[in-house]
Specification:
Blueprint (H helix, E strand, L loop, with lengths): L1 E5 L3 H12 L3 E5 L3 H8 L10 H10 L3 E4 L2 H4 L5 E4 L14 H11 L6 E5 L7 H16 L5 E5 L9 H6 L4 E3 L4 H11 L9 E3 L2 H31 L4 H9 L19 H14 L6 H13 L2 H13 L18 H5 L6 E5 L14 H10 L5 E5 L4 H7 L6 E3 L12 E4 L4 H4 L3 H7 L4 E4 L6 H6 L3 E3 L4
Parallel strand pairs: 1-2, 1-4, 2-3, 4-5, 5-6, 7-8, 9-10, 9-12, 10-11, 12-13, 13-14
């Protein structure tokens, strides 16, 4: 089938690449001329495992086309995917400017039946907004053209997006007609060979399901972090607690790992958008609001732990049994001097492994907080996200970007782990100790075993340990 997809960022990139892989003819539209030119040169704007290889293969087979001009191609394409971004506006509502622009732009040029498929994460009632825009554009042109709108939310995990698209857990659709249903079944037929379901539901459910899924997963993360914080105060181990929770088959292990909270665009953005949307109908999401608040506090908890362990180090020379309790609020001014002229290393900047995405990443908040505590240097390393962070801290001389994780440790007084990349798990601890001034490790992702670290004379502090 001939398919047009608007926008060449995350969802759009993965969608059109995977659809081309199953022999659909794809046209990718973006208003950014530089991005389109780069794609024609096989320069991919994001890092996602397996994506570059698929783009290259399908471009060489002429199944991928790129353009900035929708009008030039519009008559040749049967289905139109809108995969544009819906960033938060000033009130944290989903900004639908780009969704509206796609609906308007495309139907300025349509002359026969098309199906408009919304794949962006949008609040309830967006289908009605798009329908009104399309009808208004056709009215201006004096045209009577049949069209259908489909809601088809995406469920892609960064770092595993290609796999998620090719082997989906479920494909959710709302359609206006049997004709639109047949088109959606034709588009997704190649992905249903493994008995993966395509589910047709009513429109409001289709628009809410992505927000509900992300909010639930985010709540699991904040829940386990709350339990981890409590476990520290009573000298329990969150790893044991989590393990026995996991064995309840109603709960499962995913998203029950204690750490520094969630980042990414989708969880914070979708939770805020859901809260703001339902303010319109006077409903207060108390649990989801609490989830957001817990996560904000969790992001910089590693800095509080570092302050605590340095304060403790002054009076306890041995690194063994270095449990760190939260610092008292009244000691804020005194604690601010604890990191003065210290060099702090950070391993991991992306919000999770296997992606270069730093949107709402905890690392950004940690770096900002360390800068405010008068550290001498913050030496950072991430396998793929360095360039994105450099843009944010380009004028900050205290932030030093290193070639590898070991270079980041040279003359360091403390190491903070913020992303659980595999290469960090398998590091050479003898080399780590040779490079560092002090053997202080704050493990924000519980990458290593506490007892093992203490046997090697590290002053180690994880989350919920």
């Amino acid at each position: 089938m001939k398919i047009t997809i608007f926008w060449t960022w995350y969802v759009g990139l993965v969608t059109w690449t995977c659809l081309a892989e199953v022999w659909h003819d794809i046209l990718c539209i973006d208003i950014d001329e530089k991005k389109i030119e780069n794609l024609k040169k096989w320069i991919i704007p994001i890092y996602e495992p397996g994506l570059e290889e698929l783009v290259l293969r399908n471009y060489k087979l002429w199944r991928l086309n790129f353009s900035t001009d929708a009008k030039e191609w519009v008559e040749f394409w049967k289905a139109v995917f809108s995969a544009v971004g819906t960033p938060p506006d000033e009130d944290h509502r989903a900004d639908l400017r780009f969704v509206k622009a796609v609906a308007k732009t495309f139907w300025e040029n349509v002359n026969d039946y098309k199906v408009f498929i919304n794949k962006s994460t949008v609040p309830v009632w967006t289908w009605n907004i798009c329908k009104n825009i399309i009808e208004e554009e056709l009215k201006k042109r004096g045209k009577k053209i049949n069209f259908d709108i489909v809601s088809n939310p995406e469920f892609l995990k960064e770092g595993a997006a290609v796999r998620d698209f090719m082997l989906p857990d479920r494909i959710v659709c709302w359609v206006e007609s049997e004709k639109a249903k047949e088109i959606m079944e034709e588009i997704y037929k190649p992905f249903l060979r493994s008995n993966r379901p395509i589910v047709f539901t009513e429109i409001k459910s289709a628009e809410i399901i992505k927000y509900a899924a992300n909010s639930f997963l985010a709540t699991k993360i904040s829940f386990i972090n709350e339990i981890a914080n409590f476990a520290e105060m009573v000298w329990a181990d969150i790893s044991d607690i989590s393990k026995w929770i996991w064995l309840d088959d109603r709960i499962w292990s995913k998203f029950l790992h204690a750490g520094i909270g969630y980042g990414w665009s989708c969880f914070p953005k979708d939770i805020q958008a859901l809260i703001q949307t339902w303010k319109d109908v006077w409903y207060d999401f108390k649990i989801i609001s609490a989830t957001e608040e817990v996560n904000k506090k969790q992001k910089t908890k590693v800095v509080d732990k570092l302050l605590g362990i340095i304060k403790e180090t002054k009076s306890i020379p041995s690194p063994l049994h270095s449990e760190v309790l939260p610092l008292k609020k009244e000691k804020t001014k005194e604690n601010k001097n604890l990191l003065k002229w210290k060099t702090v290393s950070i391993w991991g900047l992306s919000f999770k492994p296997k992606t270069d995405d730093i949107r709402d990443a905890p690392s950004l908040e940690v770096i900002k907080k360390l800068i405010g505590l008068w550290v001498r240097k913050i030496k950072v390393f991430d396998p793929v996200a360095m360039d994105n962070v450099k843009i944010i801290f380009k004028d900050e001389k205290k932030v030093v970007f290193c070639k590898n994780n070991y270079e980041a440790l040279k003359n360091s007084d403390a190491l903070i782990v913020l992303t659980e990349w595999d290469e960090f798990r398998a590091c050479d601890f003898d080399k780590v100790k040779d490079l560092m001034n002090e053997y202080i490790v704050i493990d924000g992702r519980n990458v290593w075993n506490k007892k093992m670290m203490e046997k090697m004379w590290f002053r180690y502090c994880g989350i919920g340990k």
